[in-house]
Structures are given as C-alpha cells and as structure tokens.
Amino acid sequence: MDFIDVLKSRRSIRAFSDKKVEQSILDEILREALESPSSSNTQPYKLAIATGETCKTLGQALLSNYQASNKIQKQPLPLKVISAITSNALPDSDFKPMLGKYPGIFQKRRTETGMGLYEVLGIERKDKKARDEQMARNFTFFDAPVAIFLFIHPGMKHTALLDAGIMLQSLMLATTNKGLGTCAQGALGIWRSPIDKHFMIPKDYKLVCGLALGYPEENSVNSYRPKKIDLDELLIPSK
Ligand SMILES: Cc1cc2nc3c(=O)[nH]c(=O)nc-3n(C[C@H](O)[C@H](O)[C@H](O)COP(=O)(O)O)c2cc1C
To answer: Reading across the β-sheet that carries 181-185, which strands appear in turn?
Structure first.
C-alpha cells in the first residue's frame, strides 16, 4: 500500500475474524515497528504477546475481573467496600486510571466518539446493559487472535511514554499495511496480575496499554471513522 493509504485507512478495529495470524507475518510487523525513532535510541519498551491458548485464557481472566468489578460497582455502599477489600478483581494497574469526567474539551470529544460508536453498533445511550456488553468485549480483545501488552521502563520518565506511543503507531501502521487491523486498548492496562501469570515481565517495567491484532471481520463497527479535529483546533495561534 502507499504510505498515505496506510495512514488514512488505519482505524480502530473492534471485530476480528478467527483467522490465525502466521508467526512469520507477526515477526515482520514487529521488526518494522522497531524502525521507530526513540529518545537517544533508548527504546525503553517491551511487548508481551499472547496468542493461541494464552490469548484465550488471558482474555477470560480479564473478562471475569471486569464482570466482578462491575458487580461490585452496582452494590450498595457498605457491601461495595467489603467486596472491594475481599475481591481479587480490584484494578492493579501500574498507572492510575482516569476516573470520572475528562477535563474540558476532552470530555466532549470522548462523549461524541463513544456515542458515534454506539450509534454504529445500534446501541441506545440509555441501554446500559448493551453498553456494558460492548465494554466487556475489550477484555477478550474483540475476539482478536493476538493480544499485545505494551510495557515501558519508567526510569526514562515521560520520554518512555512518548517513545512507546511512536512505536505503537508504527506497529499499527505496519499491521494495516499487511491487510490486518488493530485496536489500541487502554482498557487492557487496568489489570496487570493476569498478564504477570503468563509472562516473565522484567522488574521495573510498567504496563501502559494493550493492542488487539488480527484480520478484520466484515462488520459495521469496523467502518466507524470518528471525526478528527480541524487544523484550527490543532494549531496554536501566534501572538
Ligand atoms: C492509547 C489508546 C488507548 C485506547 N483504548 C481503547 C480502549 O480501551 N477500547 C477501545 O475500544 N478503543 C480504544 N482506543 C481507540 C480509540 O478510541 C481510537 O483510536 C479513537 O476513537 C480514534 O479512532 P481511530 O483509531 O479509528 O482513528 C484507544 C486508543 C489509544 C491510542
């Protein structure tokens, strides 16, 4: 594909077919992503990649954590506190999740994007059950056969997150270029312990997010193209 076509056709994929991703293709994509720039070439990131049975087991573990924590949320306050203390489903993310409303304009953009997605899915705003079910699909990676978990070394401070973001975009573009799809998933950063059970994560590395990867399924959800900001919103006016 031409570079511009890759750039423009990459969109978050939230329905994957069960077609296996050959290891040779995955290796090629990963090598291409490694062409990314990073601060002083430090490359302060690592990936844990779940495929096959590991992908399925991990997906089920994350899903049951999501379902358990959802149940806790719905309990009356005293019970909520007890369940939160006794349950294993409490989030154990390395980075504090942003709870509640996003600040300023970001909440508006978030809501518009979410509403647009539910519209494509035929889910009404007030249909909390259907929205929960859609949210739950995050934890089984929208049925993708490959789930990637992105870790950074926090010793490299903010540059680690910046470098990891650049690498993640290269990974997504390299995947699109081969006719496959991806969805970056902050939701996969909520529970770390299920991932630790399957991978020898080096000490000090912190989980940032995940990425579902596979062949896109014919599904209207994959045609969703949320609006990007205009140039005038991007650019800071001069004095
Ligand atoms: C760091 C990051 C985390 C994301 N987390 C999620 C997620 O947990 N679930 C999800 O469905 N989409 C997630 N997305 C996808 C965004 O919603 C998506 O990129 C945005 O709406 C723009 O759409 P596009 O990727 O199709 O251009 C995430 C994207 C990024 C970059």
So the answer is: 45-51, 146-152, 206-214, 181-185
Q: If you average pLDDT over every residue of the chain, what do you get?
A: 96
Torsion of CA 4, 174, 28, 179, to 10 degrees: -80
Rounded to whole angstroms, how far apart are CA atoms 101 and 93? 19
**Residue 55 φ/ψ, nearest 5 degrees:** -60, -45
CA nearest to 48, candidates 180, 200, 212, 166: 200
Closest alpha carbon to 196 in 92, 65, 99, 97: 92
Instruction: Write down all domains in the chain, each with its CATH number in brackets.
Output: 3-97+132-224 (3.40.109.10)
Distance 12 CA to ligand 1 centre (A): 6
- pTM of the full structure: 0.96
Q: How far is the CA of 184 from the centre of ligand 1 (A)?
A: 5
Kindly tell me if the per-residue pLDDT of 41 is higher than 90: yes
CA of 86 to the centre of ligand 1 (A): 32
Q: Mutation test of ligand 1: which of 45, 162, 183, 190 has the most ligand atoms closer than 8 Å to its C-beta? A: 183
pLDDT digits (tens, 9 = 90+) for 124-172: 999 999 999 999 999 999 999 999 999 999 999 999 999 999 999 999 9
